[in-house]
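Dear H.,

Thanks for agreeing to be a second pair of eyes. The structure we're designing against is below in token form, covering all 111 positions.
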């Protein structure tokens, strides 16, 4: 039983790592070739070719995310921002207990 679970979990880690790697490759391509990226996205979403645009959107790169996953005391740190959200939702009743942000966020997939 344990070996089946471990194999499934490892497969999930590998799949998620591959997805993250592919995502950032796509972001880099779209930023370098916005017209082609817009056309590809429109095709996948089945919308008109002029419907998709990166105007006003900042897609974060792998390097951006590596920086965001560093500890810090500003909103440039995902950990800090997550703690702000936790405090808000605890205060508003959206959460009944405080989750451990460091155990929820998983930066290893960025490597």
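And this is the sequence the design step returned. I haven't edited it by hand at all.
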């Amino acid at each position: 039983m344990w070996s089946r679970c471990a194999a499934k979990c490892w497969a999930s880690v590998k799949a998620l790592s591959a997805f993250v790697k592919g995502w950032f490759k796509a972001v880099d391509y779209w930023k370098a070739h916005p017209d082609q990226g817009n056309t590809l996205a429109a095709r996948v979403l089945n919308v008109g070719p002029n419907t998709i645009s990166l105007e006003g959107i900042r897609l974060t790169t792998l390097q951006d995310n590596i920086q965001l996953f560093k500890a810090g005391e500003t909103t440039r740190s995902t950990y800090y921002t997550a703690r702000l959200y936790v405090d808000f939702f605890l205060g508003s009743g959206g959460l009944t207990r405080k989750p451990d942000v460091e155990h929820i966020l998983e930066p290893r997939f960025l490597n």
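Two observations from my side: Residues 2-110 form one domain. The two ends are 30 Å apart (CA to CA).

Warmly,
E.
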